[in-house]
Amino acid sequence: MEQTVQQRLQSDLKVAMRSGDTTTRDAIRYILAALKNTEIDRRGQLTEADAEATLRKLGKQLADSVDQFRAGHREDLAAKELAQLDVLKRYLPEEMSDEDLAALANAVVAELGATGPKDMSKVMPMLIERTGGRADGRRASAAARSALAAVAG
């Protein structure tokens, strides 16, 4: 039987504690706390989809924190958040490659019959749905803009 994300996190936490890997240990504790808070908010057990959504949200927050710390010239804090983000990514499905994302964006544009940048609001919802969370909004938006520019071209 496949382990849930939370079970994998718990077993990896034990391994990190035994090996003295404080970065991984702290990151996993942070991730588990976020999952627990979501569980409390939902007043029940998390489904795998809920857990994945929580991890994605947490990943976005960490990425935003890295950007903020770098803008504030705090590389020390940015490095810490980046290390946590690296640990978090181990528990998310693999990201779509740029080529796959571009191909998907082109297919969505063709399927909808989009004719240019004005159709971005039609393309984005379908593109986000089809990526299945395997590409963040910024990357999907860039791919959609590129596909729409090629069609308008």
Commentary on this structure:
There is one protein chain. It contains 7 helices and no strands. The protein has helices spanning 5-19, 22-42, 48-71, 75-89, 98-112, 120-131, 137-152. The protein folds into 2 domains: 5-89, Uncharacterised protein YqeY/AIM41, N-terminal domain (Hypothetical Protein Yqey, Chain: A, domain1), CATH 1.10.1510.10; 98-152, Arc Repressor Mutant, subunit A. The longest helix is centred in the middle third of the chain and has 24 residues, at 48-71. The protein is globular and about 55 Å long. It is mainly α and 153 residues long.
Structural class: mainly alpha
CATH topology of the largest domain: Hypothetical Protein Yqey, Chain: A, domain1
Q: What value does the average pLDDT take?
A: 89
Order of helices and strands: HHHHHHH
Indicate the percent of residues in helices: over 70%
Can you tell me the CATH superfamily of the largest domain?
Answer: Uncharacterised protein YqeY/AIM41, N-terminal domain
Give the CATH level 1 class of the largest domain: Mainly Alpha
Biggest sheet statistics: none
Briefly, what is this?
With 153 residues, the chain is mostly helical.
